[in-house]
Every structure is written in C-alpha cells, then in structure tokens.
C-alpha cells in the first residue's frame, strides 16, 4: 500500500554534515548567548547563508549601523531613499516659500505661489470625468472588437420609460367604472390594452352617444371587424390581415390624437386558447373565420403529435 501513497518512492533524507560543529552549550544543555564574531562554527558549504559579500551602507533608521545591500534589503533602502528625496524637496520648497513671503513683506513683486511638489494631489471632478470617459470608450471599443457592435448587441432603452407620467394600470372592473354613466368621472375607452380619455367628446362616447358601447371596455376586435354588437372584446384571435390593420389604424389614431390623451394600460385575464373565436356578424366572414380556426387547431394538433414522437 505504500506505493499508492508514495508512487515516486522514498526520497533520500538530507543528513546533517558530520563536520558541522554545534554552538557551545551551558551546564543546563541549552545553547549559550550569541557568540562574538569569529566564534560561530564554520560552514561546510561554500555558499552558506551566513556569508554576505554585498556592499554595506548606512542604515536609514540608525546612522551608527551598517546594513547589507542584498536583494532582501533593497526595497526598504529604495523607499528610504525616496523618502529622503521628498523631504529634501519639501525643505527646498519651504525655503522658496519663506523667501517669497519676505519679498511680499518688503513690497516687491513676486510670481504666483508655487505648489508643494510633495503634496498628495486629490482627484477632482475633471479627473473623475476623464476616467469615466476613458472607461466608456474602452468598453465601447471592446464591444466592437468582440461582438462587432459598439453596444455589445444590445438595444438602447427608451428614454421615455424613465420619465415619470400620470398613467396608471387598470383592471377590467376598474375600467368599467369610466363608461360615462357617472357624470363626475371621465369617460375612457381602450384599444388593444391602451386606455384613452375621450371625455372631451362625451356626447359621442357617453350615454346616448353613437359610440357609447365602446366606453369603459377594451373593444379592440370591433374596431377591426366593425361588429359593434358582438365583438366588444379584446380577443384578436382569428382576425384577417386587413382586420388587424384596422385595429392598428385606430390604435394609432387615438395614440397620436391630442384630443384623446392616453391615461394608462388595462390588464386582461388570459384567454383560453381552446375557447372558440367570437362569431363574426358577416356570414361570409364568419365562415372564413371558422375555416381559419379549424386550420389553426389542426396545426396545433399536428405540432403536439410531433412533440410526442
């Protein structure tokens, strides 16, 4: 089992050289205090770690002490040199500042005050704007390089969705309260989910008006088929292409009208896809709609069979 835990075999252990002497020990068996230079045991290896042939310089923290310039000490020595240079530059700046103040006291002309070269400069608004600009430019160019699109194949959001409006979300029950029967409330109609205020034409959309049946509900289907008695519903299933264009035409008409402002959206419950289409008021169109419904159901049944297979 040992070969599973150690497939490479046992490695030779490093042995302590026989000619390496120990530091002298006291009567208690513990090593004595650090010995004087020259008393330490000699190393059997040529490059023993105690050997240091690097030049020595003054210790920045203690002028009476020398330290080696070996690799481990160089970062500390470089930082100490950097601090010394900055302190010297600051002292020179203080001297120039003192001379300038003396000239001002004597009434002599002097130039603009020189900033402290050792002062840590803060990043202002201009620096922050530059950083944001450069970061944005980098992201845009990276998107063009990786995806071929400056916007990373994403579309810009519409600014209008972030602008607060007074529009609201209606339920079908809430929308029915604005059918014009209450003179203290406005008159609303809805087309394909969009709700419009038609109170400016209450005589037409209010009680007794020619389009009162449209008030307080989403009768989008009637705008496309013209069946204002049987198609007062938002169900647009089974409409022909020309009928769908009629719905979109009236929706655009009210949406672009300055007389009938949009006030919100209406939320409808989902329509059961198995329910029959609303019957058309025109017999010929009703037959065509029934044929279209039959083909749609057959296509759905075939698709379900393919999924089962």
Arithmetic mean of pLDDT: 81
Major pleated sheet: 4 strands, mixed
Find the count of extended strands (DSSP E, 2+ residues): 6
The whole-angstrom Rg is 45 Å
- Poorly predicted runs: 43-48
In which order are the strands of the major sheet placed? 3-6-5-4
User: Level of helix content?
Assistant: 25-40%
- The helix-strand sequence is HEEHHEHEEHHHEH
Tally of separate helices: 8
> What structural category do the secondary elements indicate?
alpha+beta
Dominant shape: elongated
Alpha carbon gap, first and last residue? 54 Å
Strand fraction = 5-15%
What does the model show?
By secondary structure, this protein is α+β, with helices and mostly antiparallel strands. The chain has 8 helices and 6 strands, in the order αββααβαββαααβα. A 4-stranded mixed sheet has the order 3-6-5-4. A hairpin with a 2-residue loop joins strand 1 (56-59) and strand 2 (62-68). Mean pLDDT is 81; it is low at 43-48.
Can you give me a brief rundown of this structure?
This protein is α+β, with helices and mostly antiparallel strands and 309 residues long. 38% of the residues lie in helices and 9% in strands.
Which tags fit this structure?
elongated, 4-stranded mixed β-sheet, 6 strands, two-stranded antiparallel sheet, 8 helices
Describe the secondary structure blueprint for this structure:
Elements: H1 2-5, E1 56-59, E2 62-68, H2 74-105, H3 125-147, E3 168-171, H4 172-176, E4 188-191, E5 194-197, H5 202-205, H6 220-225, H7 241-256, E6 262-267, H8 283-308
Parallel strand pairs: 3-6
Antiparallel strand pairs: 1-2, 4-5, 5-6
């Amino acid at each position: 089992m040992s070969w599973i835990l150690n497939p490479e075999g046992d490695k030779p252990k490093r042995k302590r050289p026989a000619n390496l002497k120990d530091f002298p020990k006291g009567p208690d068996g513990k090593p004595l205090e650090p010995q004087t230079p020259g008393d330490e045991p000699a190393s059997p290896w040529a490059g023993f770690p105690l050997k240091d042939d690097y030049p020595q310089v003054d210790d920045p923290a203690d002028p009476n002490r020398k330290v080696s310039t070996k690799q481990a000490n160089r970062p500390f020595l470089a930082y100490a040199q950097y601090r010394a240079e900055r302190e010297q530059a600051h002292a020179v700046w203080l001297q120039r500042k003192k001379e300038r103040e003396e000239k001002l006291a004597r009434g002599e002309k002097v130039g603009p005050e020189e900033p402290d070269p050792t002062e840590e400069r803060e990043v202002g608004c201009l620096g922050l704007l530059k950083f944001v600009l450069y970061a944005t430019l980098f992201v845009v160019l990276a998107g063009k390089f990786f995806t071929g699109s400056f916007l990373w194949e994403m579309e810009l959001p519409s600014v209008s969705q972030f602008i607060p409006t007074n529009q609201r979300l209606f339920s079908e029950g809430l929308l029915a309260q604005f059918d014009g029967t209450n003179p203290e409330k406005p008159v609303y109609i809805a087309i394909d989910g969009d709700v419009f205020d038609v109170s400016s034409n209450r005589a037409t959309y209010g009680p007794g008006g020619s389009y009162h049946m449209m008030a307080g509900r989403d009768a989008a289907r009637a705008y496309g088929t013209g069946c204002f008695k049987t198609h007062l519903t938002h169900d647009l299933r089974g409409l022909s292409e020309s009928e769908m264009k009629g719905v979109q035409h009236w929706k655009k008409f009210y949406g672009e009208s300055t007389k009938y402002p949009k006030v919100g959206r209406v939320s409808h419950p989902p329509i059961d896809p198995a329910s029959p289409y609303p019957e058309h008021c025109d017999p010929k169109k009703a037959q065509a709609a029934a044929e279209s419904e039959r083909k749609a159901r057959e296509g759905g049944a075939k698709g379900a069979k393919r999924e089962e297979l």
